[in-house]
Batch of 4 targets.
Target 1
Amino acid sequence: MLSVKKLTKVYEGKVSHRALENISFEVSEGEFIGIMGPSGSGKTTLLNMIATIDRPTAGEILIDGKNPFKLKKNDLATFRRRELGFVFQDFNLLETLTVEENIVLPLTLERVSVKIMKEKVKTVAKKLGIESILNKRTYEISGGQAQRTAIARAIIHSPKLLLADEPTGNLDSKASKDVMQTLSNINQEFATTQLMVTHDPQAASYCQRVIFIKDGALYNEIHRGDNQKTYYQRILDVLSLLGGESGDLSTIRDL
Amino acid sequence: MTFRQFAIYNVIRNKRTYAAYFLSSAFSVLVFFVYALFIFHPGVNEGVTKQIAVEGMKVAEYIIYVFSFLFILYSVSAFLKTRHREFGILMMHGMSRRQLNSLVFLENMLIGFSAVVVGIGFGIVFAKVFLMLGAHIMHFVDLPFYLSWKPLILTLVAFFVLFLVISMMTPLFIRSSKLIDLLKGTTKPRKEPKASVIVSLLTAVALVMAYYLSVTTTTNNIGQRLLMVVPLTIVTTYFLFSQLSIFVIRLLKRKQNFYLRSTNMITLSDLAYKMKDNARMFFLVSIVSTVAFCAIGSFAAMKSMDKQFAKEFPFAINYVSEPGDQAFHQHLQTIEQDLKAKHLSYKKLSLTTKVQDSGKTKIPVTLISVKDYNRFAQVLGFSPLKVRDNEAYVVPTSIDGAKELKKHPISSTTLEPSGKALKIAGVTNLVLYKYFDSSSLVVSGTVFNQLQSHVNKNNPYPTTPVTFVGYKVKDWKATDGIGAALSKNIRAQFKKNPETSLPYKYTSAGEEYKLSEQMYSIMFFIALLIGAVFFIAAGSFLYFRLYADLERDQHHYRAITKIGLTNKELNRTVTIQLSLLFFVPILVAVIHSAFAFVALQSLFAVSIFSATLWVLLFFVAIQIIYFFLIRFLYLKHLKEGIVS
Ligand SMILES: Nc1ncnc2c1ncn2[C@@H]1O[C@H](COP(=O)(O)OP(=O)(O)OP(=O)(O)O)[C@@H](O)[C@H]1O
Ligand SMILES: [Mg+2]
């Protein structure tokens, strides 16, 4: 489904910075992958590259065997609209729209009929428990609700590949669990391939596999196997080896 | 939600951002429509002054149209710049470039079309008021309410095309196609532009030079000076803001005692952040306001001309009789009857001139006997002259002419064909009659009696000896309509054949004054509306600058209030920032205009100081009101964001 080959990203500037160094990995159809690593290790950079937001300096990304960077501009837009879902680290909801309108945005761009839109919104909102706030504007909802709205927007068009950058970063542990459960359900129900960056080992333990990155290079990788309990413990172990504090890694972004 | 709905929501729910731009556009449409109302009014085709008014308004239409184009173009590009992050999100969700372009196009057309509709709608509803008001200001008595399709169609088509063209140009403004750059959008901190010492110094020198040039402007070089000073001022103003502002803020930041005290740091660091945008906006607002001030100020000044008038027309009624004027006595009778009918008392004086040629230039010279001159001087309140036989005094035809003659005196002249040599002893303060063919010389009685008139027949418009009759009337403004029959004859003759003229000239100061007052009133009316369009546009720039950053500012102040900024301190910080935004460019505009008025003064014999001062004060007052209004709204909106 997704294959990342020898990916390198260099940020040019006064001092060029190698954010990613020769990273390669494969993700098969329907997998739910977590990406972890200390702050500044290149997780967002990697996700941006896969989401076609930014171009790699070297290396290749293939999604279903196609290199999205080789697509024409219009085809790239269509590709994003149909096959990609993206949850930004800071939601990126549009302030001019209501929650519902934000969610149906990908369908609007696809010019789907209003009837189908309504149906889909209903299902997705129910799944995420945000039916009651559909008519509110984005400044009237809480951080957790905004996060769930962003997730709803990312999945409403049933993308093949869902990319999420710290989708639980702003949530308390209860809300975080709900969101992770939803993502996990979507993964199982629709066989959506998912890639999620997270600092939260609890959240990561919902993933089938966790990839660890350090200083822009692959550091380690662990599979869930059957035992969720030991899986969680193993994640914590790798994290402590990586040198990050596991508990308070979730960053305080919004003062 | 369909695609079209999406575009509509984007506009309607952003109405706060677009408010000033929308109103300003609608106002331009309105003014354009009002001019069109006058231009197409059937009542304005009669009479010379009305036709001049129409010509003036046509020019005004072009000015407004071109200005609106630039204003809307700039505003649209500025709006789009603030929306990069939003566009990035949309493209991330699969919006194609085509869709993005059509979204922006739809939004712009929506705003543009509503502005046109509102502008014209307002114009139609108040057409009667505008016609009345305009007619009143321009001293037209008879402009009944009249509304045809023509002004409507013209305005509609003109502005529809304008918005269409600009909307089609919008894709050019969203240049960055890299998604990552778009997503970072406006949150990316802009670099402070660097201040170069050399450029700063050059700017200072250029500004001083521009001001010096305008202070030393004279009647003769004003055109040429204008061509130099205007571009120089525009360029220096730009650098003044882009260089000097940085320089000052750097300086203040370096003063740690000042920078780290109380709220100064918050205020200054924020100012520095917005520097580049502010510099450009300051520049635009200054220039646009200067244009508004100057346009309105100069015509307001011209309206206050009656003092100059009184000096230029010492006699309210002037009659010049040339050889062949058979109706001389009859005409004087008509005039005197008219004066009596209006119960105007008068003092009547008359003299007869002689003509010779100047030896050097071969130009005819009118000669007046000193006896006649002194009779006139006594009545008009000037000191009498003593003229020796080899001397002459020059009587200029106008105040400006007198100034020129005093600056560049002529020392002597020889008359032809008599060969009489005369030393020019001076220039009189008395101006006899504006429409004499040439300046006159006062010569001694003996010389005057000796000389014979000589009319050069080779001259296509020969200057002949004339008899001048002047009526001094105290209430000279009331002399409009006196001798109307004579004026009418002269005008009829001019219409019939402009090449030949009747053997007499007639002018009443009252009529002249009324005509010129009306001319200036027309210009004033036109300049007033154009100035208003400019000034409101400047206000819209300010508003936009503020609201474009409102969201970011809310985040900013939310963060700071959490650290512990009191309400009072917040108000103070915002007030300081807003006052800088509102008053720095206006201050510059006022100073620029003041110097422009000094230059303009060279065109006037009387002081235009008080008239222009009033205009400037008026604008500053409006700006202060606008400042308090926006401060109130802005603080309210800002605090809404902080509480939630
Ligand atoms: N636009 C950029 N220009 C230059 N350097 C950058 C840029 N974006 C990121 N970097 C650098 O690249 C490295 C990786 O950044 P990235 O955002 O991928 O980290 P991250 O793993 O997502 O961190 P976090 O967990 O804090 O979100 C960092 O050292 C960062 O400083
Ligand atoms: Mg990150």
Target 2
Amino acid sequence: MSGVFSPTRAKIKERTLRTDKWWLQPAITFGVLISFVIYATFRAFENKYYFSEPLVSPFYSPCLSTSCIEGSSPLGQPFNNEYFGIGISPALLILIFPLGFRMTCYYYRKAYYRAFWMSPPACAVAEPHTKYTGETRAPLILQNGHRWFFYFGLIFNVLLTYDAIIAFRDEEGHWGHMSVGTLVLLLNATLLWLYSLSCHTCRHTLGGRLKHFSKHPVRYKLWSWVSVLNHKHPTFAWISLFGVAFADIYVRNVASGAWTNFYFF
Amino acid sequence: MARKLKMRIWRGDADNGGLQDVTVEANEGEVVLDVIHRVQATQMGDLAVRWNCKAGKCGSCSMEINGKPRLACMTQVASYGDEETITVTPLRAFPVIKDLVTDVSFNYRKAMEIPSYEPPANLKPGEARMEQVDVERSQEFRKCIECFLCQDTCHVIRDHEENKKSFAGPRFFIRIAELDMHPLDTLKNRKQKAQEEHGLGMCNITKCCTEVCPEHIRITDNAIIPMKERVVDVKYDPLRWLGTKIRKREGIV
Amino acid sequence: MTNLERHSYDVVVIGAGGAGLRAAVEAREAGLRVAIICKSLFGKAHTVMAEGGAAASMGNVNDNDNWQVHFRDTMRGGKFLNHYRMAELHAKESPDRIWELEQWGALFDRTAEGKISQRNFGGHEYPRLAHVGDRTGLELIRTMQQRIVALQQKDGKTYASMESHLKVFPELTVTEIIKEDGKVAGVYGYWRETGAEVLFEAPAVIIATGGVGKTFKITSNSWEGTGDGHALALKAGANLVDMEFLQFHPTGMVWPPSVRGILVTESVRGEGGVLTNTNGERFMFKYIPDVFKDKYADNEEEADRWYTDQDNNRRPPELLPRDEVARAINTEVKAGRGTEHGGVFLDVSKRLTAEVIKKRLPSMWHQFYELAGVDITKEPMEVGPTCHYVMGGVEVEPDTAAAVGVPGLFAAGEVAGGMHGSNRLGGNSLSDLLVFGRRAGMGAAEYVKGAKAVAVSEASIKAAADRIEAPFTRSGGENSYSLHAELQEITHNLVGIIRTGSELKEAIEKIAEIRKRSANVSVAGGRKFNPGFHLAFDLDNMLLVAESTAKSAISREESRGGHTRDDFPQLDNKWRQINHIASFDGNVVSVRKQELPALPKELFDLFDVHELEKYMTPEEIAKGGAR
Ligand SMILES: Cc1cc2nc3c(=O)[nH]c(=O)nc-3n(C[C@H](O)[C@H](O)[C@H](O)COP(=O)(O)OP(=O)(O)OC[C@H]3O[C@@H](n4cnc5c(N)ncnc54)[C@H](O)[C@@H]3O)c2cc1C
Ligand code: SF4
Ligand code: SF4
Ligand code: FES
Ligand code: FES
């Protein structure tokens, strides 16, 4: 018997006396994250419908493998798609990074530790584990590497912003056009920037690590702005996730011919 | 408007105890502590409860109300439904002494383990100059009234008695952050100690401490995560680590 | 008793508020072994509730300020009944005590130059209160608490244990100061948690137990304010000086009933809060007494200008000393111009933006929002007088804080008398705690050097133990909760903010009667953390305090500061020369008159003679201060 049932504690048999719907939040988180993971996995292995001039799905950008559809690889195709005789979807090469970024994100950590690991499922609700060491050992000590994923995340933001910009072309590659797809990619890039800029590591790097704000007025200003965004980091984390998924769904449907990409001009 | 309020109050001590039903009058505007006092004055003269200020300033009246760690003096009876039974128990992370009173000495022991403030050696009284922007971060943490609700709710110790020896808890993470961000503090190894001795790495930033803090201190976002980042600077980031070796200083001025 | 828990120390400090902790730090730094005892947990003492700030003439905001100005303000506020030497020491030493806190890690709000910021408060000529938002007391107590820990850590490096030379005993109530051969020998008490008894042997005891507010029905004080130290000192043979003077803070919450009395900090007025009655009239202009006419604005325009230009305008009358404002509100309410709940309106929402209010008065915003459902950035607050502070207290030697008449006994903080005269200025208490807490620590250290520890006799132990056991041996006696409620009713109605001779007489009789009944209190339940049992002891102390107050009040036939007599409404300069000294013979409290020491020449000369004429008799003026 440990935790709230330890011998010295008040003898109460319930693991929580909370009367509100404390299980709702973790249940929703669980549902949404699981759905995303399933969809993303399916898409990562699907290996088609990710490009429809000028739109690239964020799941496949930048497409770096020799198997990529022509036009979807602005950075070239340095990787062979066959390793050890197995065909690898080009998405797998890049999804690692956004995945790592989100997996080590301070906010997502909270969300999945609660919803998946139930450590704890909700505040003042006893968790089911008998042992707990937090983030002090492998593998969880690797969470401390969040900043590296953050830097990679920034590179991806630049690339996805590039994708949104080249979407100001028509199907023949002429500039000066705009479609629903342009908006979708633009929105996706914006949300990703908001997510990254509101990141705790970003806040720390820009100014949080300083001891004297007064000696670094510019960084203090930046820190203050990022602090405002940081307040909303969980919100950005969710809507940017939906943004990515939606951008992919949109491109997939256009590429498969199910939807037509409507051009405003 | 007085009404009859149904309550369940945990009574007992370390050996035995359970929830007891009582019905008590509650008046408009009253907080849970008021009705507990009424129970005490009229029905259970020896009901043990801690309190001092009755204004949310001293952090004495911490207990769990309908399962949530709260200050009884800042919890309005009216925030519960008319038909709802209010259940009050002692804090469940600490050893119970009697009724609603627990032994919170764990926290005072931890307080003694945190290295104290170290001003510059040659600074004379009255000569300190600090800018408001430089003290504000630490001031947020000094709002703490030591109610220990954050400590109570933190699963690291609430659910794992054995972690108590190696984990200082959110209250003391904000104390460490306060000192590390103090513009005049000179002690160098607070970050390393936070990780190696005070158990910062045990925290999995699930934010329950922030949820319950009656002073609305943003414990996780403003103290724990920044401290984790500072720890990465000195322990897990080879580039930064190299930088500090070359420039021979830890934080940045 | 063979299995009695015993400790022996050089100094025992009763009380872990600002005064007690400061005394303990000083005594420990002087090399002594020190015990700190307190009724609640460490860091929860009353001091934690102080909001506005600590007064010290650092001159950071207005450099015209200096100790002389602070001294003058303090004397005026106390209507010249203060012990001049205490007021002098206090004014001179406060800045050092505040700077010392900063050395220990306190983070006060800053000025643009990076110095400690100071704010305006009632009765202070210049912005003088060092503060942290509106939680200054918390900062003070936490800093002291952390200073204690720092000293313990230092001891831990030198000795085997961190607590070997300085230890806190929380949740322990002292019930007796034990004397042997006329000298202090130790204290006796019980652990609240278990009810087990404890003896501390020590040649020096410092009382720092704070105030008496719980004797009254409506008060800003917590349950701890039961006047224990006042009673312990009386019983140990010390005197209480000027117990008739109680400060009713003008602005306590009045609605809802459960929060009645909780303090609304004076900073609300310092930051521009305005008092109005139900007719919308800003009534304070009607209540500026003659002695203050040249310092306070008599029209709204000038009062408003003062907030931006303090050098060329007189201050708004909302910032008059507390006794004046409390009486004014009382009069307005009695005249039917109060709110339905018996208060008046206090409004900051018109002068300050919501953002500024939340920044400068965060806990007030919080308090009203959570407890009363009032958003003070939009609506006015309802306020009325609440019993807040006792000016009277243990008679001490100003320089050493030694209690007059009892070798080895010291007192500092709210429990000590004399410093504030008939009325305390806001902010002067926190600095008082530091100045005289330190002096008590020094005084005790000095005394211990020359004193031998006296062993506590078995007879004394038995007497103390019997007293604790008594309520358990009775059954079917009186209930301490209801006796307490009766006492509060009496003090509230008969010894309250406005007093008359006949009511005071009635009060004295009724208090005596309750005291008789209290000898018959019985307690249900066991010894373990039993609030009913705790209250039985507190009640005893409150009764002694109430008796001292009522008896001093009936004797003083004038109105001054925190003592207002309907039948003697005027300030009487002859009474200014008189202190009341209460003492206790084991049965009843008796009160005698004692002459106030005359102001020495150098302090006398700090004042304009015309001002002194308002307070002193012509003969005193003619003498021109003592040489
Ligand atoms: C709401 C409020 C706001 C205030 N604001 C201000 C302000 O802004 N500025 C200012 O200068 N002043 C202010 N004051 C006044 C000031 O806070 C008090 O006068 C001061 O804190 C008293 O300090 P103290 O050290 O004398 O005693 P306290 O802080 O009251 O401490 C008393 C200690 O004695 C202990 N004790 C008592 N009896 C016993 C016993 N029998 N056995 C063992 N221990 C015992 C208690 O446990 C406690 O630790 C305010 C007061 C209140 C109530
Ligand atoms: S965020 Fe960390 S410290 Fe706070 S409750 Fe969760 S695990 Fe504990
Ligand atoms: S941080 Fe908040 S919850 Fe924790 S002890 Fe301080 S006030 Fe209480
Ligand atoms: S991305 Fe969430 S904290 Fe960095
Ligand atoms: S009694 Fe002080 S916080 Fe509740």
Target 3
Amino acid sequence: MDSTIKRKFSVREIREDFPALRQTIYGKNLIYFDNGATSQKPQYVLDAINQYYSKDNANIHRGVHHLSQKATSEYEASRKFIAAYLNAKSSDEIIFTKGTTDGINLVASSYGHLLNAGDEILISAMEHHSNIVPWQMLCERKGCVLKVIPINKKGEIIQDEYEKLLSSKTKLVAVTHISNSLGTINPIKEMIQKAHAVGAKVLIDGAQSIQHDKIDVKDLDCDFFVFSGHKVFGPTGIGVLYGKETLLDRMPPYQGGGDMILKVTFDKTTYNELPYKFEAGTPHIAGGICLGKALEYLNQFDIESIKKHETELADYAQDLLLTFEDMNIIGESKKKTSVVSFIVDGIHPFDMGTLLDKQGIAVRTGHHCTQPLMDFYKIPGTVRASFAFYNTKEEIDTFIAAVEKSIGMLK
Amino acid sequence: MTLEEKQKEIVEDFAIYDDWMEKYEYIIELGRDLPIIEEDKKTKDRIIEGCQSQVWLDSSFADGKMHFKADSDAIITKGIIGLLIRVLDDEKPEDIAKCDLHFIQEIGLHEHLSPTRSNGLASMVKKMKMSALQALTTNDSEQKA
Ligand SMILES: Cc1ncc(COP(=O)(O)O)c(C=O)c1O
């Protein structure tokens, strides 16, 4: 796909690209507002998956035959494309993983190996469980100390508190770019600068940002950036860990096996170079190739048009929701992505979600894998509508009518 | 009424609804009618934590029969609890332990009882059966003693 000339941003045309959007659920047209959990896939990606398994399937990096070389070169071409997309220095900095969770665990294990007892790791109070638990496990293993940067009621990281927590003991700051429960866009560039000022490294959880904004790892100057393919219109089971080469070089391998070695003897094994050092075993080849295709698909559009449309959707939904009595929007930062999390006094999110589902609307309810955050707000969970660029205001109108009906039944 | 007959009766009750929203309206009503569990009984040992909603279950055994009280923070969950209690309350532990709750499937609410649904209901049914089994064993040993 040529990305120099951007494709016209037409929601109607974009919707045509996503077959999953054209279906009925309980006899109603599906309205898919659970994009924060996972996104639907465009035909361009589906075709690529089909092409790979029906024509190009072969193991990579190990065959002299034509197909193996073809698969290898496509897999590596995808890595190159992703490197360029993220503005990484080289494709050696792009490690294919299973997803965000896997990337964070890799860093916790391998970078964690370089840490010592008493070293401090900072996370924020709005992290997803997958950016909490791996650090807790590391702390248990190595005697490091996990500290939590508090947030305010609006759902924003309190920067003063962050600065207070930073010290020469801080070795790593692991924060999410965008909160999956609140939609808050954190000022990560500034946070990265502050961390670097005390010599700490920074991991950015990009699970919720890669699909909404242009990511430039050089400009951000983050040390690690992780994301999942499935949230950015690509396949499940594939993701990316970007890491600065100098850091990745110093880190020991994560898992052992084929592909990650140069030479194996029973006395001593030497490890392969980057990025293969971190990719043991046969990888998710189709996933790697098709994640590249998904980003190619996204890259046809001017990201500003996508952002504008998504922000309009979120503002529109939020304004309409606020016309209901006893409505609470959870996450009120001015800097928000297209996530609207809410709870109505006296109505359990599970009940609301169940009734919306039966009206053909897919939203997420519950704690969104951010239990500590729900504890902070003293709520059992929220109903979360998360929009993608293929959603429309008409869908929001239907959604609002369904919310009204549900409130009527539940109040 | 036997446990089987009660299941049949529920299936018949639901047969009049052909629309999902009507069905849920009825379930919500059942949820509102369910006698609540006293606050002081909502203790840690009675709680069944689901990912989505919480359930409290209080089981007791008297005069050869099991008795259940339950509650939930979500009204739909509560309505379904109401149905489960209607079927299982005041039944002999041996009947509860071996019963197949097929009515849930027949009225189209089985998704709520699937272990992956994580609203606490699947665990609640399991706990009801376990307490029935426990009553059976204590009952047996009491009779032997
Ligand atoms: C902010 C955030 N971090 C991490 C994850 C975990 O991503 P995955 O389950 O794809 O590994 C998610 C997904 O819900 C997320 O929203």
Target 4
Amino acid sequence: MADLSHLKADFPVLSNGVHFLDSGASSQKPIPVLEAMDNFARSSYANVHRGAYKLSVAATDAYEAARERVARFIGASDPNEVIFTRGATTALNMVAFGWGMEHLGPEDRILTTEIEHHANLVPWQMVAKRTGAKLDHIPMTDEYRLDLDAYNEKLGPDVKVVAVTGMSNVLGVMPPVRSISDRAHEIGARVVVDAAQLVPHSPVMVEMLGADFVAFSSHKMLGPTGIGVLWGRMEALEEMEPFEGGGEMISEVTLHDATWAAIPHRFEAGTPPIIEAVGLHAAIDYLDSIGMEKVLEHDRELTGIALERLGDVPGLNIQGPTTLEDRGGVVSMTLDGVHAHDLATILDEEGVAVRAGHHCAKPLMRRLGVTATARASFYVYNTEEDVDALIGGLRRAGELFGVGE
Amino acid sequence: MSLEDLYREVILDHYRSPRNKGHLDKPDYRAEGVNPLCGDEITIELAFDGDQVSQVAVAGQGCSISQSSASMMSEAIKGKTKGEIEDLTKRFRDMMSLDGEADIGLDPDRPGAVLGDLESLQGVRKYPVRIKCASLGWNVLLEALDGERLS
Ligand SMILES: Cc1ncc(COP(=O)(O)O)c(C=O)c1O
């Protein structure tokens, strides 16, 4: 067992003993992240890329150091390929609008999947409506995996972009992004990966992932809210138009026209999340000090324990694979006769925090034939005790509602 | 406050066996509502005989609180006039409101209590995120009554 139980003490929110199993929605923040932001705000804060004074230079250095740190973390060879955004959602919208509006037309097809989070589905619906492009979906098999045979059949010369999740926030499955990308590239399509769940929980080297664009959020990986990343292969970023105009993103401006600054600043209009970038930098340092291989192993071990013990809870159904291969630490479940919201209330009363609902994946819920699930998701600070508390709470819910009587 | 106070037997009974479930052939009023945050759905159909509700049908899906509240409501409004229903709705909302009077004689065991079974839902008030579940059916009911008459 990758024993990380000593880490719990680094997370102030967890000191009251809550069994926090909702890191898939947002993770807790360790003291080094909080302190890094606090120290920076107290000692070196100013706006970036503007002032000629020392403080602004220090802040700019810190902000750009965060960019370099992100690049190193995800194996990007050029830090200029790292664009800071407000989060994964903004990053995906930047691609859908900034790239999609430029390159899609009525003859084209956008291929996404049945298991996407709304963040990698709705922007494409919007762009499809505006450009006349068709929207198509890779279906899910009954084993909760993307149907790659269907994918191969759907891939045609009219497919210009493939938008796929790196890890489902409902099922926990990690689709084979590399082979999906390779196939897409054979026909000249661009590949966009929603890595909001993948990057926090698994080592990711973007060059090896094969995609052209990768989006993720800081707040799901121990960092602050308000900042996320769009990584793009430079040649793909060059095909993209800025989605927002304003300060910082221009080279020359006249009353009627403007030219763009170089990449990445072209895509960072306005004052960026500066303190948050420092926090994300510290979060990455923290994760790397554990080691992402170990983070993945730890999440998988807890998932394995959970899957095994959940199997003994009467009336419980796992919505997702019950094996560990190509799967991260997210377990969705339903309990016969007990609605997911009732489950979440009962678990909360037992000190267990889980998410209940459609998890921003309504089409997937429909495909699963459920309206809502309860979802437990694991991260570095979780322990076997958290799993036990979950199981205890589920049994309690079953008893209250008379499941299996 | 324990979970048994929230999930009283009456509530679970209405959840498992919802009353007046389904649709009417010829409703006079109809409305549907969704709670977009949690996805709970309720459709209410009403038929009137003179100025009194003669038939009610409830359809939908969701958690025990939203579904049992709508089920109990459907029983409570039968035979009532629009004015009486509005009065009942106000009482229910008062019971649910965080700042409303907590103990307006809402002992669930009290015989002849105005809200009857519905009083069993007062435990929901201690779980603020669930109040909107209990209120969903009532909001749909008022919308139905305020809507166009269908026949
Ligand atoms: C798979 C997936 N994609 C996208 C998002 C959106 O991330 P954010 O809300 O941080 O923009 C989330 C998180 O909610 C997610 O789980």
